[in-house]
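Teaching note: in complex prediction, the entire set of molecules is handled at once rather than each chain in isolation. The prompt given to students was simply: 'Predict the structure of this complex.' The entities are:
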Amino acid sequence: MTLEREFYARPVVEVARDLVGCTLAHGATAGVIVETEAYHESEPACHAFAGRTPRARVLFGPPGTAYVYRSYGIHALFNAVCEPEGVGAAVLIRALEPIAALDAMRERRGLHEVDQLCSGPGKLTQALAIELEHNDTDLVSGPIRIDPRPPGWEDADVVAGTRIGITKAPELEWRFCATGSRSVSRPWPVALRDAA
DNA sequence: CATGGGATTGACT
DNA sequence: GTCAATCCCATGC
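The expected output is the structure of the full assembly:
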């Protein structure tokens, strides 16, 4: 049932859009992916832009691998490596809608409100206990798993917008969100605000 | 080896 | 709206 390696070995922008509505799970905790962003070696916001540095090495490896790095010295951010091996690219998972083991998420986050458990890239790694040690683990056979859209999410609509929190290449519309989800991190894309 | 910045979050004015 | 926390790593000397 888990997504296979071929799913990730495609253009990273396509994978980012297709991952919305799929589920991300680690241990007992799981959620539906409602927000993603694509990063590719050809544009300067991507860590692979500088080439095969020690940090970016994983991005050039086999598709379907986890890339986890520390942001602002505090948060672990989770990505899925994409494109064929040799091309540096990954999809950042920015938000989930929690569906399993919510009490474990609440304990790790120190919060009760469901909409705040995984509504940001640093929040969801804390809620799912994803840390730097999971960098370079396999998404096809490893501890972190991504599965296809579950019942009720087959027809979810996806809207595109510009990426968040970056200073380079801010004009690319490589951010994808599920319409109608309350777990998307702010600010919402223009298309989502109009729909609401 | 020293330095500077960042794909964020939470607390505060 | 502003701002600090905190650490890995890319870069430059």
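Point out the following to students. Helices of chain A lie at 5-8, 12-19, 102-109, 121-128, 190-195. The longest strand of chain A covers residues 29-40.
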